[in-house]
Amino acid sequence: LLVLPAFLIASALGASIAVAAILGWFYSLALGRMSRGLRNLGAYGLRYSAQVYGYLFLLTARYPHSAPPA
User: Fold this and answer.
1) CA-based nearest residue to 63, from 31, 21, 55
2) Is residue 13 a contact partner of residue 49, using CB atoms and an 8 Å limit?
3) What is the pTM of this model?
4) Which residue, of 2, 46, 64, 66, has the fewest CB within 10 Å?
């Protein structure tokens, strides 16, 4: 029950990962490198999703941390 809010955020971030991947591919195709913002968005989404699934499958007792890295 406690994982539902975090799971909703992770699913929204999953959509942003897909958008970042598609836009990043076109950006990389045109310029030969990926935008730092798109790369960071994808990495943030993957990191948060891993934390949520770890909490969901009872691998850790730590609730997913959604703040950006310091």
Assistant:
1) 55
2) yes
3) 0.84
4) 2
